[in-house]
Write a structure and sequence with these properties.
The complex is a heterodimer of chains A (about 110) and B (about 110).
Chain A: E1 4-7, E2 10-14, E3 19-25, E4 31-37, E5 43-49, E6 52-56, E7 59-64, E8 69-74, E9 83-90, E10 107-112
Parallel strand pairs in A: 2-10
Antiparallel strand pairs in A: 1-3, 3-8, 4-5, 4-9, 6-7, 7-8, 9-10
Chain B: E1 4-6, E2 10-13, E3 19-25, E4 31-38, E5 42-51, E6 54-57, E7 65-70, E8 73-78, E9 87-94, E10 101-103, E11 107-111
Parallel strand pairs in B: 2-11
Antiparallel strand pairs in B: 1-3, 3-8, 4-5, 4-9, 5-6, 7-8, 9-10, 9-11
Classes of the chains: A mainly beta (about 110), B mainly beta (about 110).
């Protein structure tokens, strides 16, 4: 059973387009990460949020805890935004058998010049 | 800046070898995690530790063991590497109180 659903799986955009990636989850969480992974593997946490909205440069993340949904938006997309974006809700059961993060399968974004 | 450092970016090992993947964090975090990432399957938890010498199995612990002798270091051990353990391995850490997690740069392991 998938506790975290991300859409779309793949996304190709033209430079300058507005991009939205969606994440829905089915479990209770304490917060949610949006992660970015460039080719080569390293993961960077873009945002961690537990309510409302956060903005960093051209990136905006929103979360609705009641609806169990989060979105990541990229305004004025650029080829350097090409990466895999992963939604990772944080469970509250620290020390429990599941660890504290679960992951979506990722959205592979390709921005063409 | 929090740093989570994995000892190698790329490793190639032979089937049957004992393999050690090392992860060090410099922020005095209680929780440390090992994940593997495979195409189509995403990130899956292998083991985690919430204190020195404490460990808990994740979703896919078979074929792996871990060691946490010091708070800052969490090692993943493949006792006898097999080709189906070829994967990207990621380490992460967080405070006991969470929830913010920090990731290492990943180790791409190839078992031949």
């Amino acid at each position: 059973k998938n506790e975290v659903e991300q859409s779309p799986q793949n996304l190709t955009a033209q430079e300058g387009e507005f991009i939205t990636i969606n994440c829905s989850y089915s479990v209770g969480i304490s917060a949610l990460h949006w992660l970015q992974q460039h080719p080569g593997g390293g993961i960077v946490s873009l945002f961690m949020l537990s309510s409302g909205k956060k903005k960093h440069g051209r990136l905006i993340a929103t979360i609705n805890i009641q609806e169990k949904h989060s979105s990541l938006h990229i305004t004025a997309s650029h080829p350097r935004d090409s990466a895999v974006y992963i939604c990772a809700p944080s469970l509250g059961n620290y020390g429990g058998s599941q660890g504290n993060l679960i992951f979506g399968k990722g959205t592979k974004l390709s921005v063409k010049p | 800046d929090v740093k989570v450092t994995q000892s190698s970016r790329y490793l190639v090992k032979r089937t049957g070898e004992k393999v050690f993947l090392e992860c060090v964090q410099d922020m005095d975090h209680e929780n440390m995690f090992w994940y593997r990432q495979d195409p189509g399957l995403g990130l899956r938890l292998i083991y985690f530790s919430y204190d020195v010498k404490m460990k808990e199995k994740g979703d896919i612990p078979e074929g792996y063991s871990v060691s946490r002798e010091k708070k800052e270091r969490f090692s993943l051990i493949l006792e006898s590497a097999s080709t189906n353990q070829t994967s990207m391995y990621l380490c992460a850490s967080s405070l006991w109180s969470g929830p913010e997690a920090f990731f290492g740069q990943g180790t791409r392991l190839t078992v031949v």
